[in-house]
Amino acid sequence: EWEKDPSPYDSINWPKPRYSDAWRKAARDQEAHYTRHRAVVPVAQYEDLGIVNVHFLPCNQVAVSAGTTYPGRPDYPFHFPQKMQEPATCPES
């Protein structure tokens, strides 16, 4: 389960100083627009427990891996681009 901020960079325009009453109000107002998501996904096969990686992908998709490998290695089960754009419309789940 996770929450998603639809406008994660809006805080640059929030009132100054940071953590003032006005800033905290802007943060609460922003939080009211968060969306909540839940996904149950398979974990890519692994032999030894080590690192757990959770990839948050466009269209509220999630991929999870566990083991002793990590992104960028040839034996890593997923090879997602570093930056992925959200499409204009997402397929129905």
SSE layout and pairings?
Elements: E1 2-4, H1 21-31, E2 35-37, E3 51-57, E4 61-67
Antiparallel strand pairs: 1-2, 3-4
What would the keywords be for this entry?
1 helix, 93 residues, two-stranded antiparallel sheet, alpha+beta, 2 domains
Describe this structure in words.
- The chain is an alpha+beta fold and 93 residues long.
- The chain folds into two domains: 1-38, no CATH class; 39-78, no CATH class.
- It is built from one helix and four strands, in the order βαβββ.
- It has one helix at residues 21-31; strands at 2-4, 35-37, 51-57, 61-67.
- Strands 1-2 form a two-stranded antiparallel sheet. A two-stranded antiparallel ribbon has the order 3-4.
- β3 (51-57) and β4 (61-67) form a beta hairpin.
- The longest helix has 11 residues, at 21-31.
- The radius of gyration is 18 Å and the shape is elongated.
- It starts with a strand and ends in a 26-residue tail after the last strand.
- 0% of the residues are buried.
Strand content: 15-25%
Walk across the major sheet and give the strand order.
Answer: 1-2
The helix content is 10-25%
N-C termini distance = 16 Å
Largest sheet: 2 strands, antiparallel
Radius of gyration: 18 Å
Gist of the model:
With 93 residues, the chain is of the alpha+beta class.
